[in-house]
Structures are given as C-alpha cells and as structure tokens.
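Re: that chain you flagged

S.,

Sorry for the slow reply, it's been a week of failed gels. I finally had a moment to sit down with the sequence you sent. For the record, here it is as I used it:
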Amino acid sequence: MKMIICKNEDDVQIEFSYEENADFFLISLDGAYSVSNNVVTSANTMTDGSTYQGATTKQRNIVITAEFDSDYQNKRDFLYKCFKPKSPGTFYYKEGGEQREIDYYVETVDIDEKGVCRNATISLICPDPFFKDPADTTVTMAGWEPCFEFIHEFTEELEEFGVRVAELVKTIDNDSAADNIGIEVIMEALGAVRNPVLYHTQQGIHIRVGTPDFPFDMEPGDIVRITTGTNEKNVYSIKGNQETKINEYLDEESEFIQLVHGQNTFIYDAESGVDYLNVTINYRFRYLGV
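Prediction finished late last night. Pasting the structure tokens below so you have them in one place:
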C-alpha cells in the first residue's frame, strides 16, 4: 500500500493514502516519478547540431492532490497548520518495504470551498531534487564491532564484548543513479594522533587535517568530524561536548570527498598515531525518483 507522509519543522505530520477510511484520500501524486535536467549546449559555427557542455538536475516540484469528505473546517485548519508558508518540511514516500524521503518548502495550498468531497492540492518545491534513504549507512574502517546483542545469556566465562576491526582500505559501491553524494567522516582518537588524512583512490584526491607547518594534534577522546554534502562542506573538532569548526587546518590540496558512481575506495592515515584512530563513514544514497 502506498502512503505519503509530510512532516513540518514543528513535527506536525499528515498522512495521505489510498485506504478507503483515510482522512485524506490520495487522488494523485505528480513530480515524484519524473526527473528534469537543464542541458547546456553551444552552437558550432558552420557545423550542424551543437556541442554538449554539461547538465544539471532541476529542482523538483511535487504536487499532492487529496480529498476529504467530512469535518471540513477542522481538516482545512489542519492542512494550513501542516503546510505553513516559508516553512521547510520532509516528504516521506512508503510503498511495500521501500521508503524514501526528500526535503521541501511549501509553494501553494489550494482547497475546494464547496462539495461533499473536497479536494486539496498542495504544491511542494524541493531545491535538492534527489530522494534519500531514510537513514544513514555506516561503514566502519577502524573501530569496535559488538559480538552479541541484548538480550544476551552469558554461557561461558571471558566472553568477548566486541572485536577490534581495523581496515586501512575500504570500498563503497555506489550503484545509485546519483553522483557526488556527500559523506560524513568520523575520526576518533584512542591515543595521540597527528594530522589525520583520508584518501579517495579512484579520484586521486584527499582531505587532510593539519600540515607539517600547522599541525593538528588529537588527544584520547578527541573527534574530527568531516561533512562533504552540498552546502555543508566543513571540518569540526569535538572535544567533550564542544564542537568547533576547524577548516583552517586543511592543507591547500584538500578536497571534500564525495561518493561518485561506481567504486569508491578509501584509505585513512596520519602523520603519527594511525593505529589509535577509529574511522567510520556515514552516507545516504540519492535517487532520481521513488
């Protein structure tokens, strides 16, 4: 069964579905199954056709049409409460075992004035046109993996609570339709670490925190958090409960690594103390439709 949920910044949410007793029966959903691109070409003098220069995916416009047949005033008020002007929200699409989500801003809300069954048409603008998975995927390059889950019965002495995993090289396969997927890299120091770095071998690029002339030293418990998504390219230092932006520690050749289509092989290192690093990579695949 298909279900649409829209939740605004105040955690007020509304459901649209095909169930007969639904408060808001879903009539149509436009803009969730299509994708539109801006293709840039240049004309060639005295040559037929044109030359392809590049393309970008346009913002997405999702239009929901639903109907309701009772309690008109309260349901109108609820729609206005959910879809406030200038208000951000998240659109959730559920069908079978699949779920996708996308952030939106409200463009218009149009509600019929009369009738036994009254239609409501809601237009949503999604500046980032890609749908995302509902939760991050976490890849552990170095860290601890638990050996059991609660509830657990201890049947022998000296059972291991976890196993240390340390893989300097890790490959993530991106088989989605999207390139340039932002990631979050968490580097946690178990001991003294200087100038940690992460490499992407296919692209031949890296992101390094600290240089020989401007070193960055981590003590036990310190965390470096790197974010590379659109409009959130930053590096942070976390000490206790305090998080500080430290982009000034990046070396001049650093690039904010993103997942490209196909294989993405990562290698982590440090000028010193690499054996004392826990490294995880979090990401969400992006999709052109639901």
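What I noticed first: Residues 195 and 215 are 6 Å apart (CA to CA).

Talk soon,
D.
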